[in-house]
Design a protein that fits this description.
alpha+beta; Beta-Lactamase; Heat Shock Protein 90; 3 domains; 9-stranded antiparallel beta sheet; 21 strands; binds adenosine-5'-diphosphate
Length: about 650
């Protein structure tokens, strides 16, 4: 299948344009994708930092509070034995920091004072366990923010023993501030952790332990509101690989047993894919912030892990977000732009086709014209249809080429014609040589016989003068005939012949008498305006041939045209150093289709078209010129010159 130049141009144009737009779109896409991914990483890092700071804002004050309360208890500022005083101090400390959910002090004897936030009947609740020799009492008091009692009662069923709780055990074991692992708080049933600090007697013995509770739900809530991206998620993992805080955290351990999900069995598959590896070796040891990428179900995600605090609280913040959250918009844009590019390309292709059609129209017209010119149906010289400079140049070259081939064709034709005529001429030459040879013998015989006859007549006593005259003229004609034959032979042999001075008037008179018979037959009157002239020089016989030819052409022209007036006038005139002879007739003139003096140009059925060119050659060989006088309108006149004898 072949396409037109126009459609190839248009399609190529549209294709290139599509390619260009697609490249630009893709480059822009890659650049913006890079920028967006960089933004994603920044957002993740920022979120990690926020989560870390936020977690610390929970943890640090809790620990500081525990240590502060411990120092106060160890000093003599507060009477630790006075439960009411201790409760009030703990109440004030709890109110000072809204992140704390409860504050308590348990001692080695089993006494316990616990102040916590409550959901009712008052906003705060105190639990006081008093262990005496006669047994233990557990008192519950609900208070308002200004410490006034809302409700109070005893709980005889209570069996709580602080000394057996993990926070108490760890703090007494370490004899320094500790953080517990996350666990479910006894009272609120909420997951949380406790900062615990031991309290000593002045002698160094352990007196008890201060505990400060933080509910982790608040951290989860914070993580839920981090707002990194639409499908992102942030978790906090403890050192065992348990997920202790995540946006949708809901603790449901109704039996009080804490059971955090391990990251390996966490019900967020993306989080599993991202972070399960971290806990693969039994524990998580993330010591520095790390950003990475991972694939899950053919989607790429960016993730960040980061330690929350350090050794004391060995938690890890883990955040992930799908890349698409950041680059989906530009992906959509790219798709749209490619469609736009395709649409623009189609429109361009259509416009291109139109344009190509407009551009190609003159080219096609030119092609048609060229075809016509090559088939000879139009002339290359005909005006070119409106077109381009390049085509104009091509046209000029074409015309020149055609012309050159024609100038060349004509030459070949002429050469062919010349060749065939030359071969005929050659044949004629051979025939003429043969003829001349054949005729010279009878002519010689005639001349000898005439001479004998003249001698015989003259020897008679009364010679007949008229007979002698006739015989003498006969002798002259026989000699002239012989001369003509010799000249013809010489001419055919390219013999220049003899050049001698002679009387031009006499030659003309003789020529007229030679042609008289022919003239009379054709009803032609030959006139000769004689002038006295010096002798001319040349080959007399050849010039006689010229005269014969010119006068015979004149007779034939008038006879063929059936002219009413039939006169041939021969004039001689001295012109400087030469004589000018003119032969004019009252015939129709040279027909327009004839190129005079051109060999083989003839209007006659039996003509050869060689006479005039032969005459011109003879005249020029004899130092003269021969021409046709175009200024003579009424008559046709041929002229030639012969030089005078110097
Ligand atoms: P040919 O006589 O064999 O045709 P010429 O060379 O003598 O060859 O003449 C060429 C042609 O010139 C003639 O055929 C004729 O058409 C034209 N021509 C020559 N002389 C005359 C004349 N006097 N008047 C008109 N036409 C002439």
């Amino acid at each position: 299948m072949k396409f037109s130049l126009g459609s190839v141009l248009a399609i190529s144009l549209a294709g290139l344009q599509f390619l260009a737009i697609t490249i630009v779109v893709s480059t822009t896409y890659v650049t913006s994708e890079k920028a967006m991914l960089e933004l994603a990483r920044l957002r993740l890092a920022e979120a990690g930092k926020n989560a870390s700071q936020h977690s610390q804002s929970f943890l640090k004050p809790a620990r500081e509070t525990a240590e502060l309360v411990s120092r106060v208890f160890e000093s003599s500022v507060l009477d630790v034995e006075d439960a009411a005083e201790v409760e009030k101090f703990l109440f004030q400390s709890l109110q000072a920091d809204q992140h704390l959910s409860g504050l308590y002090f348990g001692d080695e004897a089993g006494n316990f004072i616990y102040v916590m936030r409550s959901s009712g009947p008052g906003p705060f609740r105190t639990k006081i366990i008093d262990v005496a020799e006669d047994g233990r009492t557990t008192q519950l008091i609900w208070r308002t923010a200004d410490f006034s009692v809302v409700e109070q009662r005893y709980d005889p069923e209570d069996r709580f023993d602080a000394r057996q709780r993990p926070w108490y055990e760890s703090a007494t074991k370490e004899r320094q501030s500790i953080w517990t692992a996350p666990y479910i708080f006894f009272s609120s049933q909420q997951p949380g952790i406790t900062a615990a600090t031991p309290v000593s007697y002045p002698d160094g013995r352990l007196r008890g332990v201060i505990g400060v509770d933080i509910e982790i739900a608040a951290i989860s809530e914070f993580l839920a509101n981090l707002g990194i991206s639409e499908n992102s998620s942030a978790l906090i993992l403890n050192e065992n690989g348990d997920v202790i805080a995540y946006p949708t955290f809901e603790q449901t351990a109704a039996d009080g047993a804490l059971d955090f999900d391990s990251i390996a069995s966490f019900d967020d598959p993306v989080a599993r894919a991202a972070f399960a590896e971290l806990a693969a070796n039994g524990g998580i040891t993330v010591t520095r912030e790390t950003l990475s990428e991972f694939e899950y179900r053919k989607n790429t995600y960016v993730s960040l892990v980061k330690p929350v605090l350090g050794k004391d609280v060995p938690w890890t913040i883990a955040i992930y977000a799908p890349q698409n959250d950041f680059i989906q918009t530009i992906k959509d844009n790219r798709r749209r732009n490619v469609w736009i590019a395709a649409a623009v390309s189609i429109v361009t292709a259509c416009l291109g086709l139109l344009l190509a059609e407009l551009i190609l129209r003159p080219v096609r017209a030119f092609a048609v014209r060229t075809a016509l010119v090559s088939q000879g149906e139009a002339l290359a010289s005909q005006p070119l249809p409106g077109t381009y400079r390049e085509l104009e140049r091509a046209n000029k070259t074409l015309i020149d080429e055609i012309a050159q081939r024609r100038e060349a064709d004509a030459k070949i034709l002429q050469l062919n014609r010349d060749l065939s005529h030359f071969s005929r001429l050659d044949l004629m030459g051979q025939m003429a040589t043969g003829l001349a040879h054949e005729l010279s013998q009878p002519l010689t015989a005639i001349s000898q016989n005439v001479d004998a006859a003249i001698t015989m007549v003259k020897e008679k006593p009364d010679p007949d003068q008229e007979l002698i005259g006739i015989l003498t003229e006969l002798d002259e004609h026989a000699h002239r005939g012989g001369d003509i034959i010799r000249t013809l032979r010489g001419f055919i042999r390219k013999d220049k012949g003899e050049s001698k001075p002679f009387d031009l008037n006499a030659l003309i008179t003789q020529t007229i008498s030679l042609l008289q018979n022919e003239a009379t037959t054709n009803d032609v009157d030959i006139r000769f305006a004689r002038r006295t002239l010096p002798e001319v020089i040349g080959n007399r016989v050849q010039l006689a041939q010229v005269l014969v030819n010119l006068v015979r052409n004149a007779i034939e022209a008038m006879a063929d045209a059936d002219s009413t007036q039939r006169t041939v006038t021969i004039r001689v005139e001295p012109k400087g150093d030469h004589a000018e002879v003119s032969v004019e007739d009252t015939g129709p003139g040279v027909s327009p289709g004839i190129t005079l003096f051109k060999r083989f140009e003839t209007s006659k059925t039996g003509g050869m078209g060689l006479g005039l060119s032969l005459c011109r050659t003879i005249v020029e060989n004899n130092g003269g010129k021969l021409w046709y006088d175009r200024e003579s309108l009424e008559v046709s006149r041929f002229c030639f010159t012969i030089p005078f004898q110097a």
